[in-house]
């Protein structure tokens, strides 16, 4: 898999090594191989283009999980979250290039700098957020040099000094770099490095505004990134039942948090969560079918807003974001395996059919 054409639509799912979500407490085992296999294969069978393998402090290693996903699938791409700065960029470059070669070019990297000082401290990282983003920029500089340079290179930055760096193993093609972050420090890195800029499920007005800022930052470097939207579809056969399911998920989320002894969510440190909470403050139901109540309940710790309705209605809502410039949709459910199967059977075909019919009308006109 190489870099996608600007207008190509991409669907990315989410795989975890065990069943867990806001409504499903984590089991005792950190890794359940059979569940990981089923979840990965459900996405491949459902027609997803990639799956995200997430990173967070205390989690199993994302690169090794991605290798396992590749071993039980045939074609689906891997979007591997990588916390920049913990592994030397030359070493990380060889790791990603090696896996890309072994999987026939299925690898992408989601470069994350970390937005919560408390989580970073668990791995002994105490840099400020702005400094972490500056380090990420240098990390990605070295990563690309390692992947592309046909001779040893030197690099001198504030965080990395490389002398005679070189990688014998190169990717099959250019490894796509996904990147998110809405602070000024993050946008400076996004403009230089993001092949696809990742947004969470914000309102249409918020998405329009942030896309404009990212495009301005990228234009300064002669670049034109793609845009991704991360959202949690809640589907049912009727709109009424879909909203009832959404309210049931909210109630179950509250039960799980109470059973775990979790009080009100702490104020987030990252700009993305703050933007989701700003949307939630405007109402629980926004635009056509954006549902923000679960984000408000959890402190917007990650992708936590939903699109609610029938598959056709949610497909129409995704098309509204497509009209704003979004071409990648990162979707996952609150019932991870069951929802992935339903998305593959109903939502992805509904969106693709809707887009094809609209494009056909435009060509005819």
By CATH, the architecture is named Alpha-Beta Barrel
Q: What is the spatial order of strands in the main beta sheet?
A: 1-2-3-4-7-8-9-13
Coarse shape? globular
Here the CATH topology equals: TIM Barrel
Enumerate how many helices there are, as a single number: 12
> Which residues form runs of ≥5 with pLDDT under 50?
none
Mean pLDDT score? 95
Question: Span from first to last CA?
Answer: 34 Å
Q: What is the helix fraction of residues, given as a range? A: 40-55%
Biggest sheet statistics: 8 strands, parallel, barrel
Q: Would you list the SSEs in sequence order as H and E?
A: EHEHEHEHHEEEHEHEHHEEHEHEH
Q: What is the CATH homologous superfamily assignment?
A: Luciferase-like domain
Chain-wise SSE layout:
Elements: E1 10-15, H1 33-45, E2 50-53, H2 62-71, E3 77-83, H3 89-102, E4 107-112, H4 117-121, H5 129-148, E5 153-156, E6 161-165, E7 177-180, H6 184-193, E8 196-200, H7 204-219, E9 226-235, H8 239-259, H9 271-281, E10 285-286, E11 290-291, H10 293-298, E12 306-309, H11 311-323, E13 328-331, H12 336-364
Parallel strand pairs: 1-2, 1-13, 2-3, 3-4, 4-7, 7-8, 8-9, 9-12, 9-13
Antiparallel strand pairs: 5-6, 10-11, 11-12
Helix pairs in contact: 1-12, 3-5, 5-6, 6-7, 11-12
